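Hey all, sorry for the wall of text incoming. These are the two entities for the joint prediction.
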Amino acid sequence: MKDIDWPKVAADLAPIECIVDRALVRQKSRDFFWYSPVLNEKLKGVRGDLVVCPASEEEVVRTLAYCHAHRIAVTPRGAGTGNYGQAMPLQGGVVLDLSRLDRFLWLKDGVTRVQAGLKLIDLEAKSLPQGWELRFHPSTRRTATIGGFVAGGSGGVGSVQFGGLRNRGNVLGLRVITMEARPRVLELAGDDVMPAVHAYGTNGIITELELPLARAWPWQETLVAFADIGHATAFGNALGEADGIIKKLITAFDWSTAQYFKPLLPHMPQGQAIVLCMIADSSREPFATLAAEMGGAIVFERAYGRESDDIPPLYEFTWNHTTLWALKADRSITYLQCLFNGPDYLDKIARTIATFGDETPMHLEFTRFDGHVAAFGLQLVRFTSEQRLYEIIGWLEANGVPVADPHTFVLEDGGMKTVDAAQLAFKRRNDPQGLLNPGKMKAWTETSLTGVSLT
Amino acid sequence: MKDIDWPKVAADLAPIECIVDRALVRQKSRDFFWYSPVLNEKLKGVRGDLVVCPASEEEVVRTLAYCHAHRIAVTPRGAGTGNYGQAMPLQGGVVLDLSRLDRFLWLKDGVTRVQAGLKLIDLEAKSLPQGWELRFHPSTRRTATIGGFVAGGSGGVGSVQFGGLRNRGNVLGLRVITMEARPRVLELAGDDVMPAVHAYGTNGIITELELPLARAWPWQETLVAFADIGHATAFGNALGEADGIIKKLITAFDWSTAQYFKPLLPHMPQGQAIVLCMIADSSREPFATLAAEMGGAIVFERAYGRESDDIPPLYEFTWNHTTLWALKADRSITYLQCLFNGPDYLDKIARTIATFGDETPMHLEFTRFDGHVAAFGLQLVRFTSEQRLYEIIGWLEANGVPVADPHTFVLEDGGMKTVDAAQLAFKRRNDPQGLLNPGKMKAWTETSLTGVSLT
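and here's what came out:
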């Protein structure tokens, strides 16, 4: 995009807010790709040329029509909290910052409709007084946008109750703008939302979302210490399977991981494995009984929502935040994303720990997966080389543990969801010139180069 | 209890309300044991001698002390909605009607404390305006008492989310009066409640309960028709495992069972299998998509709470009410209670259907069971003889389908929970003379006769 006069583009788009300042554009071009040393090498030089910040759907449409006319790549972003380059503008061009589309439109009978740039925390600030909360959210609840989460995320805090974005029923509707001479406004409902969920904005720009919420419970945050990760894992599973104990979050760490949680160090017995939970108020007693029965000691308890300056909400030690705490202490650390699933999933976890030990400090996020309890492994990795990283990934996959590789920005190779023909067909219809977040959807890149049509 | 002067007992107990009228006493001595032709033979002549209706805990204590002093058997009852003689006074004596202990004491942070005789419907009339509902309830919600349910039931509508009474965390506290010269008032909490749950009041009289509630959702009642019970069962399982679809009830019937639901006949296509569900409002769309995908047709929908004179709440066609509809049409029908569980539970269901066909018209209640989806089989039985009934039960148990025999009033042989040493020890401490609901706890009867001590 070298021969484009970016100040002129900004002037053409006026009064739509644009950012041309190089330092600011660079800052607004980045996400958390640097979690991965592999992606860091590939993406550290990547930047957009212009950030466009529409404040209305009309401004989104105008921007897309303009960019389509001028063959300018457009990469959408929310808050840029993704961890594997979802929002990185590989070919430069326009970064479409949707964070000003932040209106809470309505909430009725447990369904809310909001604009894509609304922050999760602001969504819940509106819904909680009406007795509703998000079914699940990433650990970036205080910074991320809802559109960014649905376009680039998969699950999070609450998935132990409701599964993730891949599950039918967790996203009810999307409003999507196409990348054409005259951008169309699509209202997707039912299964039709799926091609645009976790598609990184490659096949349309999400401007509004219709989401089913969960009834809000009063929650307790708690830490339970165990002698070792084996006991912690057994407890995580037992708690997940305890139908009479209401929970929103079950995360297990061995000490190699937990040692990086600086604010929690005064509360965690040195060398022990930790299970971090969010439990309904009314489940505290049976939770404590189960913990004691399985050898655990409750070492920290706090009502959810009462975070202090010293200790942030406990969910900010879970999911992708876990890795962030480790990275703060040791820049050489990275992580994995895999799924321990099936009747023998606890065995798979035990074998992984036995095989890699402290090379991959354990971090487990218990989840519902198609109606039963499973665990995502987001274990840390003491990175030595890309080759060794892929040896570990190879071992996991050979041992029945699928890996959603967080060291690639290619949609098909990462994430928790594969690109199917429907998703590609959706891009063909909505972005025939391939200008949306280019370079991310392999199926598109390959068929474009070879002229093969999958439709 | 022939030599007791019952009018004198009533006079001694005054001003505690007593019923001496023979017809009324007989009526208040009965439950729904006649669901079973086997129990009907054994229990049809059973009646108490006096019904005592205390209006306060003090009156309960006074009644128990008096009966202890005079060696009078005491059999507690709520509304008498049990199906296998739980409340039948085998040795006559006093029937302790607890329905006047009906106070709603408090509700805080999702926990409620109520007196044992409070009806389920009245409990929810108080809790729903505060946004809370029972985690699960039997199909007798409109008539049963909460104490009767906890003392004689196991699970019900909502168990597909929260499991049953056997699951830790679903009963938080019980207040229990012992049967001694000076009855003690016990406050049980945590796992200590377990010996008194589903014990038919054999080891203490429950006067108050502390129960964790569930956040109340707006629900939809719905009927889905399928070509056959195989498709209906597959749908029930898929819906149970669909983490993104919120449900409170999933019940499957083949036509042989559904044909008895007279008020629903105008809505059910003749000859089809039916799945009856309660679904959160916000899950209607994904529910309909799943139903269509699996070959189902939604034939009835109604907002929960909008029942008409024509069609009662749909839960009144499920759980033990199902059998009642069949009995209204055909007095020779009875039923079973079994558990289809394990990774091959759908196969077990299919084999049961293939083996018994129309002799046991199918009725499945999908439930969570230790963290996964399973189904209780409450199939109807076209009864021919007790011998044949136990042949069927024998086949089920031999094929990995445990049966909670509803054709016995013996605690250990029926229900969903076995009597353990703790439960027996609890009776030894609380009812040393064996006066509470005598004849129901086999372990007691046997050790009393032989003098063997298990403690």
